[in-house]
Amino acid sequence: MMIDDALTTTRSVRKRLDLTRPVPLDLVKECLEIALQAPTGGNAQGWHWIVVTDPELRRAIGEHYARSWNRYYASGTSAASRFADDPVRASVQSRVSDSAAYLGEHMGDVPVLVLGCIATPGGLPEGNQAGLWGSLLPAAWSYMLAARARGLGTAWTTLHLAYEREVAQLLGIPDNVRQGVLLPTAYYTGDTFRPAPRQPLDEVLHLDRW
After folding, report:
1. Is the pTM of this model over 0.85?
2. What CATH topology corresponds to 3-55+110-195?
3. N or C: which end of the chain has fewer CB within 10 A?
């Protein structure tokens, strides 16, 4: 797959995740090997990756995720509530919300759950945390791109972090390691992924000044 194709067709896959087809662990490891080539601040490489395949652990994480999703949706701030005054974007947001609701119901059924974590020896820093999370999130995106190139679908989500402590206890994650992203991973059904509609560049581009 050409790099531009991977970058523009790697979508958040939710409804089209194949919940019945096993994913070889070696394939997940291949994707993580690529993720480890991502940049980190000071070359610290403080990341950790928890790959969850045990059915009971996946089910438990899925239950936490479902509770978080239900609370998020009830708050009125989910994707479905945005851009209501724009019929075109509202339609897209409705589809996004519908697929997110599906994932909320089925997170525990996804064959592989990958949690990207990062060491925080002194706890979370006060103020700007861009350096910390910027040393993890590019690697998570690299993982998603590598998965896409291998016929796997993923979705970027952080909703489980409402229950980060509970998930940490479930998986034995130390107190000095924080979770940054949850990446459900499975083979996808169909292959019609294409670039998504986005705002025109001129609306968000600022040259020299705002």
Report:
1. yes
2. NADH Oxidase (3.40.109)
3. C
